Amino acid sequence: MPRGVVPRQPARSGRQDKVRVGRTLLSAKSVQKLSAGGKDAHVGTGALASQPRGKSRGPSQGKASMADPKRRQTASGKPALVSKVKGYNPLAPGRVAEILARLDLLYPEVTCALTHSSAWELLVATILSAQSTDVNVNRVTPELFRKYPTVEALAALTPEQLEPDVRSTGFFRNKSKSVVGAAKKIVSDFGGQVPDDMEKLLTLPGVARKTANVVLGSWFKKAEGVVVDTHVHRISRRLELTQQNDPQKIEQDLMRVIPREKWILFSHQIIWHGRKLCIARKPKCVDCPLENLCHAADKTWSTVEMHKEAKA
Ligand code: SF4
């Protein structure tokens, strides 16, 4: 060996045995424990991502990344809606059941707030309720049905003739067209009777799934879907029962997590909740019995962590 060249010795400090993970210097033993998912590992798995390139990852590391809640998937293969908080799943059956139980206590026997005495009256009232309040519609419909007591009477009108009667509900031109168009179709295709079938209802002018679900659920007592109006839309998102914005997708999500026998009552309860407590701009969270189950980002008072993606 040439003079002056000293064989490499282990450093007394043992530094070369350690691995820098972020700002932390870990001994090889600690890294082994972390890789093995040891209970006493106190550095997050994220830190291991900064291991030097080329180091093979142990099988337990792969396991740890699959356990990452953000990576969980539903049976359909879509990413599940889960919190960043470990172990929290907003769609857990226990949580959903608790929400439903509290709604039952809060709103035991709620029904549709639109005044009606037949399927036809309910259909018209629901068409008129778009972008309006139930109170407003209930002010208009008694006089409307006194003036035009049957489907045939309304089918005989032109939309322009109906406009003055529904003007105060807003969007009256479109609504007049829908009501008169639906009346004509019911007379011509369904013998003057409102059909109790989703497919047939959807053929009526101005009738989409929300209106059809109202008529089927509230009048015919048929649970074909969940009514998604503005309250159900807002509160389902706040309660993390869905992350969708499109009413049809929200309905599909709700149909997956709410038991079918609850579909009709659930939407009535949520609509009442939206009117009384979970108000759009300023929810009354301090008075809300769902408060400790709700992580909405726009809560006005909270005893639990708030989730920024849980918002109306
Ligand atoms: S706690 Fe507040 S935001 Fe959550 S459901 Fe109740 S009123 Fe709505």
Summarize the structure.
The chain is an all-alpha fold and 312 residues long. It has 14 helices and 2 strands.
Describe this structure in words.
With 312 residues, this protein is mainly alpha-helical. Helix content is 45%, strand content 3%. The protein has 14 helices and two strands; from the N terminus they run E-E-H-H-H-H-H-H-H-H-H-H-H-H-H-H. The protein has helices at 28-35, 45-48, 59-66, 93-106, 119-128, 134-147, 151-155, 159-166, 172-190, 198-201, 209-219, 230-238, 247-257, 263-276, and strands spanning 18-21, 24-27. Strands 1-2 form a two-stranded antiparallel sheet. Helix 4 (93-106) crosses helix 14 and helix 5 packs antiparallel against helix 11 (209-219). Residues 5-83 have low confidence and may be disordered. It binds iron/sulfur cluster (SF4).
- What share of residues are in beta strands? under 5%
Radius of gyration: 30 Å
What would the average pLDDT be, to the nearest integer? 80
Report the helical percentage.
Answer: 40-55%
What small molecules does the structure contain? iron/sulfur cluster
How would a textbook summarize the main sheet? 2 strands, antiparallel
| Alpha-beta classification | mainly alpha
Number of helices: 14
Strand adjacency order, main sheet: 1-2
Task: Spell out the helices and strands N to C.
Answer: EEHHHHHHHHHHHHHH
Distance between the termini: 76 Å
Per the principal axes of the C-alpha atoms, what is the gross shape?
elongated
Strand element count: 2
